[in-house]
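S2.1 Query sequence (FADS6 desaturase)
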Amino acid sequence: MPLEDGDSARWRGQQVNGEVSGTLQEGKTEDRPRRDTAVPNDGRTEVMAEGREPGPELGDEDVIPRRSPQQAGQREEALMAELSELVQKVVRSSSWWERHGVDVSILACSILLLPAGFLCLRSAQAIPFLVGVLTLGVVHHTLTVKGSHLASHNALTESKSWGKVWAIFFIELCSAFTVEQGTYNHVKIHHGYTNIIGMGDSSTWKVPFLNRYVYMFVAPLAVPIITPLVALDLLRNVEWKAAVRTLCCMFLGLYCHYWLLLHVSGFQSPWAALLCMLLIRSLLAHPYIHVNIFQHIGLPMFAPERKPKRIQLMSLGVLNLPRNPLLDWAFGHSLISCHVEHHLFPSLSDNMCLKIKPVVSQYLKQKKLPYNEDTYTSRLQLFLQRYEELMVHAPPITELVGIQ
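Output structure tokens follow.
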């Protein structure tokens, strides 16, 4: 059985959603999110996969001979099962250090750097002050992006109880967001319905009334302000106990940052402390926004009733960027160079995604399935050139003619 998101499947003998055992165990499969999700039906015209879909194009070698839908589905399920078995062997042979230790150490090192960063801000000289801003900015994004992302997939530990604790710490205390809604929107919707129109098509990242330059280069500075505001709005959808917990954690995280700037870094003015706080929290906001749109938008989109099988959906609708030391540290491999691997096996840690990358890439290429890769610069140029098409207008729906 293929390895899927959420409750669809769990491995025994390896870490998936915090469980350890020895065989692949079937559970219930969710074809829809937990709550009702409206799927828009706006009558958009379907287009062929060989048409003018932005993003990497499929060559002749990527086209699988056409089969009946039933034959194609059986073949793709068999491919996913085979790939899952290959990845399972890699995970079984990996130590705890490889499965969790590397990423936990990165997060721990980031926390240990906090005192140095706040103390550097005490300096009246420009260079130490900038070092403090850079240190705290990288630490903040490591905890809020890498930490929150791994915690939402329970990839930091094999214990469900500790997984919940880490999720609250990284998502609510550090990121000022809500665990329940963050996990639901990311794990259940984005991962479960990647590039499905009206569900997991990354449309939440689009702001059509902004022009390309404002969106790409100015708007990211507002992310630290927008994030808690969005979280407050989403609290209407959670139980009151979770809402109270989230409010307390959000307030504690924001106030601690502000207090440390005043009493450790020595800021005399509250407004200066708030401005520095905004600068720190928006330091890597530009690549954060860019990465989230580069890796899905512009690739094939599908109608809910024509959702392809998992291995095909992820190979077509996900893209890897090249390795980058700064972004690898702050965002994690699963969000940068191993995003395809992450979407196929979302419960694996960043380090494990990097370890299985050769297996996954070789397998997809051998089976004539797409393995999308592009550079950061190339994607930036593409979005600047085709911003109206990709970020303003509704995306065309891809029909899998010639692929199945």
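Strands lie at 9-10, 25-26, 46-48, 319-320, 372-373, 397-399. The longest strand covers residues 46-48.
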